[in-house]
Design brief:
The complex is a heterotrimer of chains A (55), B (346) and C (424).
Chain A: H1 2-7, H2 30-48
Chain B: E1 2-8, E2 25-28, H1 33-40, E3 46-53, H2 55-60, H3 62-74, E4 80-83, H4 90-107, E5 111-115, E6 130-133, H5 141-156, H6 164-167, E7 175-179, H7 184-196, E8 226-231, E9 235-237, E10 253-256, E11 268-270, H8 278-282, H9 290-299, E12 304-305, E13 308-311, H10 319-335, E14 340-344
Parallel strand pairs in B: 1-3, 1-4, 4-5, 5-6, 8-12, 8-13, 8-14
Antiparallel strand pairs in B: 2-3, 9-11, 10-13
Helix pairs in contact in B: 1-5, 3-4
Chain C: E1 2-6, E2 9-12, E3 17-19, E4 22-25, H1 27-35, E5 40-48, E6 54-56, E7 59-63, E8 66-70, E9 90-95, E10 97-102, E11 120-121, H2 125-129, E12 136-144, H3 150-169, E13 179-181, E14 195-203, E15 209-213, E16 216-217, E17 224-226, H4 228-232, E18 236-240, H5 250-254, H6 257-264, E19 271-280, H7 285-301, E20 306-310, H8 317-330, E21 334-341, E22 362-367, E23 371-374, E24 379-381, E25 397-400, E26 416-420
Parallel strand pairs in C: 1-9, 2-4, 6-24, 10-12, 14-19, 14-20, 20-21, 21-22
Antiparallel strand pairs in C: 1-13, 3-4, 5-12, 6-11, 7-10, 8-9, 15-16, 15-18, 17-19, 23-25
Helix pairs in contact in C: 7-8
Classes of the chains: A mainly alpha (55), B alpha/beta (346), C alpha/beta (424).
């Protein structure tokens, strides 16, 4: 729930896939799932590389 | 009146930052500020023991230290417990707040500490312990010790403690039920009418003041950066060697991952009770993306994956516990010279 | 038109009748009526009066005795009358009286049968908090005849309560009322006053926590408008076997304290423009947003300047409530939210389950996690032991305030609230 994370003061928040699998999707074949996971992680790294303002 | 007094390694005269890893220790009688405190009791009490611990050691081993200190304190049969003052020092504040609250709860004796109102230690204070406000700098030590001694004497004499502003302690924001003369339905209307007229009104439940956490600056050269994996999803080595619990957990653990390229259902599992575990148990990378992060490390996209996974189970975790654990994890990661963190949450 | 008949006392007697404040009930006749229902196996009746050393346990619902004497249809449309509510005409109500149904739920198979305790004390410190210590209560303890599904069981107990409520009010036909009130059908709007709408966020999740609108569960229902007179006739019926202190009971849909205040100041402090029923407890966040936004759109359609937003139960329905608040405020509608607090046993936790920054006017109805002490009493109605314990129902016990009926009502019906300790 990215909204909750933002509300309590997290500055760099990336939306995960689902509550039961934030960085995965059991509905996908393994190659596609890894691809999706890589996408999410790259978003996270991108956030770390970006200057962020509060609020 | 028998007093046991806690302070960190610095105030106990053991050493500075270089001694922040000292384990718990004790001294007979008063040491450091406890000496002046004892004088201020005016003969009505003596400090029978001073206990101390390095701030970093406390931060990283809180559960163990709590237990150990409690025993050292208990064995001195105190009537009263005092800790600090921690002033603006965050680690000292958290340590003082933790041990003071624990003593109040377990030994059921008056327990008082003191620190700046914005010290993160305030967030881990719990009733029936008390915390008095101080300045940030330790220059007002004399005044603070006078206030603590007066407050402690009041508690020991069984005097009723009133309004926080009058009595000079920091309100922990404890809410209690009362029976109002009017029903909620009757109280609501004058408030809403005022709001509709853009007049002042006072809400009955103030909005939470969530901290504005200034964002750390961006990572300049991520190809040289050390990135740590941290999670509240409850992922642990298969067999859960430290017994991470599925809800209301107060501890976190670090597990080596430098020898792993991937999490699998044979190497790891989750124990978090707040979400359906099947997907993550089949492939724990679905909660902690080690496989991808390791691949990115090999490709040179990031410098290095940190050697340890930091994990806890965030289910039904109190905000106090979560905050404390976050502070402790951050301390550890800072010392390991980690540049960035990917924190996954369910 | 609403004709009120004051109740001074209720007694068992050889005939059922109302005579100048005294309601007599022929026990056998009422029992026979309720046992006509094929799902009901046994009925035990009792009368719990204000001031008695008595306690009611296993409380299921509370209903005000009402009947319709003039006009189309009848009370409790969808249950005792065709599901075609047309709230014009005349109803009769018994004041200072209530029907309280009690049961211990069970179901065939392993269906979800969560039931929380529901308690009313007729005297002592707990009576100070629960509004139903002030009404003369006809207690109807019901047992199923055989294994029923949880859906069948809750409906059977509901029917028993509604039937009893109508049966008792029927005694007032042709009698002279203590008071008469005309509830307006059309609201004349004074353009100089702000328009206020009431948004009731109601439970809709399972047979033990649901709300029936004209005889149908609200699960899946889009937010809708009702006229307060429809509610007075029993359009909304509560199915709340959990969270007794904060769940709504049918009584407070019939006799809603916020609607009463909305009526009494209509034309002088505000214009009362309507009631919106919003189903809470949907499982997906998208649905919650969709429903909350729809509610706010209805409020805007009614030209509301202000909205009172309520809730019931606890947990994620509070997200529905907060979203309704946010959506209204975004449309320029100023909100007042009625909310329970969940600050933990010692009151040091955060009062908020979920919050939006727009929720700057919240009326507190107390911390549901506090413990209260129930002292020993002479008589217990509704059951012999506290639910899921071996403790006698009339014995002393320490329970969460959650178990005491309606003391944390998010319709603002009770007087319990939370304050900071040093401001007590």
């Amino acid at each position: 729930m990215p909204e909750v994370a933002k509300k309590i003061g997290c500055n760099r928040v990336v939306k995960g896939v689902a509550i039961t699998n934030p960085t995965g999707d059991p509905g996908l074949p393994i190659e596609e799932e890894r691809s999706l996971r890589r996408k999410v992680v790259l978003q996270a790294l991108s956030a770390l590389e970006k200057e962020v303002k509060t609020g | 009146m028998r007093v046991v007094y806690y302070m960190n390694q610095f105030f106990a005269g053991i050493g500075g930052e270089d001694k922040a890893y000292e384990p718990p220790t004790e001294f007979e009688g008063p040491v450091g500020p406890a000496r002046l405190f004892e004088k201020k009791l005016g003969g009505k009490g003596i400090v029978v023991k001073t206990v101390s611990c390095g701030d970093n050691y406390f931060a990283e081993n809180a559960e163990k230290v709590k237990g150990e200190l409690l025993e050292r304190i208990r064995s001195a049969s105190p009537d009263v417990f005092v800790a600090g003052p921690a002033f603006g020092s965050g680690r000292h504040g958290i340590a003082c707040a933790t041990i003071t609250s624990t003593v109040a709860k377990e030994l059921k004796i008056p327990a008082v500490t003191a620190m700046h109102p914005e010290n993160p230690g305030i967030d881990v204070m719990s009733m029936p312990a008390y915390v008095l406000p101080t300045e940030i700098m330790a220059t007002t030590m004399d005044n603070v010790l006078t206030r603590i001694s007066k407050f402690v004497l009041k508690l020991v004499e069984g005097q009723a403690i009133g309004d926080s502003k009058v009595e000079g302690y920091i309100s922990l924001g404890r809410r209690v039920n009362i029976i109002d003369p009017l029903t909620g339905a009757d109280r609501l209307f004058p408030l809403l009418w005022a709001k509709l007229k853009a007049e002042d009104f006072t809400t009955e439940v103030p909005l939470p003041k969530y901290e504005v956490i200034p964002p750390p600056p961006a990572i300049n050269e991520i190809a040289k950066a050390t990135i740590a994996l941290v999670t509240e999803s409850g992922v642990v080595p298969k067999g859960n060697p430290d017994g991470l619990v599925s809800w209301s957990e107060e501890r976190w653990f670090k597990y080596p991952i430098s020898h792993l390229d991937d999490f699998t259902s044979t190497t790891h599992q989750t124990v978090h009770g707040g979400y359906e575990n099947t997907n993550v148990n089949q492939d724990p990378d679905r909660a902690v993306p080690l496989d991808v992060v390791r691949a990115l490390e090999k490709e040179g996209r990031i410098g290095k994956v940190a050697d340890f996974l930091l994990t806890t189970s965030g289910n039904v975790c109190t905000t106090d516990s979560a905050k404390r654990m976050g502070c402790e994890m951050a301390e550890y990661l800072r010392r390991e010279r980690v540049d960035g963190v990917i924190l996954t949450s369910t | 038109m609403v004709k009120t008949y004051d109740i001074d006392s209720i007694v068992f007697s050889d005939r059922t009748a109302y005579d100048q404040g005294v309601l007599s009930i022929r026990e056998g006749e009422l029992k026979a009526l309720l046992l006509e229902d094929e799902d009901i196996g046994s009925v035990v009746l009792g009368i719990a009066r204000p001031g008695d050393s008595a306690r009611i346990v296993h409380l299921y619902d509370v209903i005000e005795p009402r009947t319709k004497v003039e006009g189309p249809g009848g009370v409790f449309s969808g249950w005792l009358a065709p599901p075609s509510g047309n709230a014009i005409g005349t109803i009769h109500r018994l004041s200072r009286a209530a029907v309280i149904t009690c049961t211990e739920l069970s179901s065939e198979g392993d269906e979800y049968t969560e039931q929380g305790e529901g308690v009313v004390d007729m005297s002592g410190p707990i009576a100070e908090m629960t509004p139903f210590s002030q009404t003369v209560n006809v207690v109807v303890e019901v047992k199923a005849k055989r294994k029923l599904t949880i859906d069948e069981y809750t409906k059977a107990v509901t029917r028993a309560g509604l039937k009893t409520a109508k049966y008792l009010a029927d005694t007032t036909v042709q009698k002279i009322p203590s008071g008469t009130e005309v509830l307006p059908g059309r609201f004349t709007i004074n353009p100089d006053l702000p328009n206020i709408v009431l948004i009731l966020v109601v439970a809709g999740t399972s047979p033990t926590l649901d709300t029936y609108v004209y005889g149908r569960s609200c699960i899946g229902m889009v937010p809708t408008l009702v006229h307060p007179n429809e509610m007075a006739e029993g359009a909304l019926v509560a199915f709340s076997s959990m969270a007794s202190s904060s769940a709504n009971k049918t009584y407070y849909y019939q006799k809603n304290p916020l609607i009463e205040n909305l009526h009494s100041h209509h034309g002088t402090r505000h214009n009362f423009v309507g009631v919106i029923i919003q189903r809470g407890y949907s499982y997906e966040y998208n649905d919650k947003e969709r429903i909350a936004s729809h509610s706010a759109n209805l409020a805007r359609f009614l030209k509301a300047n202000g909205a009172i937003i309520t809730s019931e139960g606890g947990g994620h329905i509070l997200i529905d409530t907060m979203l309704a608040c946010r959506e209204c405020e975004e449309r320029g509608i100023k909100t007042a939210v009625v909310m329970i607090e969940q600050t933990g046993k010692d009151g040091t936790g955060s009062p908020w389950t979920d919050f939006v920054p727009e929720a700057n006017l919240v009326v507190s109805v107390g911390n549901v996690d506090e413990f209260v002490h129930l002292r020993p009493v002479k008589t217990a109605y509704g059951g012999k032991k506290y639910l899921k314990t071996e403790i006698a129902a009339n014995a002393a016990n320490d329970v969460r305030i959650k178990d005491i009926c309606c003391v944390n009502s998010m319709l603002g019906a009770a007087r319990v609230r939370s304050v900071y300790e040093d401001r007590k």
